[in-house]
Specification:
Elements lengths: L2 H12 L7 H12 L6 H9 L4 H28 L5 H12 L5 H18 L6 H15 L3 E2 L12 H7 L1 E2 L1 H14 L4 E4 L6 E5 L15 E6 L5 E3 L1 H10 L14 H19 L2 H21 L1
Parallel strand pairs: 1-2
Antiparallel strand pairs: 3-4, 4-5, 5-6
Helix pairs in contact: 3-4, 4-5, 4-12, 5-11, 6-7, 6-9, 11-12
Length: 299
C-alpha cells in the first residue's frame, strides 16, 4: 500500500472514531493501533480540529496507547539485544513520560558536557585527578546537584528534567556521570547498593562484559549524589552495617546497564505510588516485566 492509500485509510478510520457502538468502535480502534506511530500526526490533527470532548478523549487514549506500546517495544528490543547503550535505556524510560522528546537535542547537551571534560583531561593525570575534573565540570561548571527537597519526585528520574533543572536523584545523577565518563574512555560503572546508588572506578574498561569485573578490580568508589565524593570499600561496609545488612558481592562490584534501568523503574514505580498515580504504576510494572520475563526464561 502506498503512502497516499495509507493516509486515506487512516483519515477514514479516524473520521469514524465518534462511532457510538462499542463493538464497532473497538474494531476501528484496533485497526488504527496497527498503524503504530504513523497514525499519531493524523490523530493529533483531528483532535486540534474537533470540539467534541468525547472524541478528543478517545483520540488522547489511542495516542497514549500507541506511544506506550512503542516505548515497550523499543525497551524490550534494547534489553534483549544486550542493553549496551545506557543513554538509550534512560532515553526510553524518559519517553514513557515525554514521548515527543527530541533524542538528538538531549544527546547534544550531554555531548557538550562530555567535551568540556575532554578539554580538561590529559594522559599525565592520575585516575583521581581525572575524577576531580569530571566533578568540577558536572557540579561546579554545570551546577548539577542532589534534589534533596523533592527527593521522591518522579521528575528526578527523567533525563530531560535532570538536564533542565540540574537536579536529580542518586541514580539519574549516576547515569549522567557514567555516560560522561565513558564518553571519555574512563572505566566508571554503576553499583547497585541498597537504598543508594553509587559508582565504581575500575582498572579496566569492559562495557560489554561487565559481569567479569569483580570487586577486586575496583580502584575506588564515587558518590554522584554528594558531588562526586570518592570513598573506599570500608565505607560501604560501614554503610551496610548501619542498614543491618550482610555484605553481598553485588554491593561492591559494577552492575550491568539493564540492572541500572531496572533500578530506575523501581524508583519511578515507588514515586508514582506515593502520588497515587495507579495507571502510571501499572504501565511501569508492564515495562518492568520485560526484564522479569527474560530472567524467568533463563532459570
Amino acid at each position: 500500500m502506498d503512502d497516499k492509500s495509507i493516509s486515506d485509510e487512516l483519515k477514514a478510520l479516524i473520521s469514524l472514531l465518534d462511532e457510538p457502538d462499542e463493538v464497532c468502535f473497538e474494531q476501528i480502534q484496533q485497526k488504527i493501533y496497527s498503524y503504530g506511530v504513523d497514525a499519531i500526526p493524523y490523530l493529533e490533527k483531528t483532535w486540534e480540529n474537533s470540539f467534541d470532548g468525547i472524541l478528543q478523549a478517545r483520540i488522547e487514549e489511542i495516542i497514549h496507547k500507541i506511544q506506550f506500546d512503542n516505548v515497550y517495544m523499543e525497551l524490550n528490543s534494547w534489553y534483549h539485544f544486550g542493553a549496551r547503550n545506557l543513554f538509550l535505556g534512560h532515553m526510553l524510560l524518559t519517553k514513557f513520560q515525554y514521548p515527543d522528546l527530541n533524542e538528538d537535542h538531549i544527546k547534544s547537551q550531554i555531548d557538550a558536557i562530555a567535551k568540556d571534560v575532554w578539554l580538561e583531561l590529559n594522559d599525565n593525570l592520575t585516575f583521581l585527578e581525572k575524577v576531580r575534573i569530571i566533578n568540577h565540570i558536572l557540579f561546579d561548571v554545570h551546577c548539577f546537584s542532589a534534589n534533596t527537597i523533592n527527593f521522591h519526585s518522579p521528575q528526578n528520574s527523567y533525563i530531560n528534567t535532570l538536564l533542565e533543572t540540574k537536579k536529580g536523584n542518586p541514580i539519574s545523577l549516576a547515569i549522567l556521570y557514567i555516560i560522561i565518563a565513558q564518553k571519555n574512555n574512563l572505566p566508571v560503572f554503576g553499583v547497585n547498593l541498597p537504598e543508594h546508588f553509587i559508582l565504581a572506578f575500575t582498572n579496566q574498561f569492559s562495557e560489554n562484559n561487565i559481569s567479569f569485573i569483580n570487586e577486586n578490580e575496583v580502584l575506588f568508589y564515587i558518590n554522584p549524589f554528594n558531588k562526586g565524593a570518592v570513598f573506599t570499600k570500608n565505607e560501604i561496609e560501614l554503610f551496610l552495617k548501619q542498614l543491618k545488612l550482610k555484605p553481598n558481592q553485588t554491593y561492591f562490584k559494577p552492575t550491568a546497564n539493564e540492572e541500572i534501568i531496572k533500578r530506575l523503574l523501581y524508583n519511578l514505580i515507588h514515586a508514582y505510588e506515593k502520588l497515587g498515580y495507579s495507571t502510571k504504576v501499572k504501565e511501569l510494572e508492564l515495562l518492568l516485566n520485560i526484564f522479569k520475563d527474560k530472567e524467568e526464561g533463563e532459570n
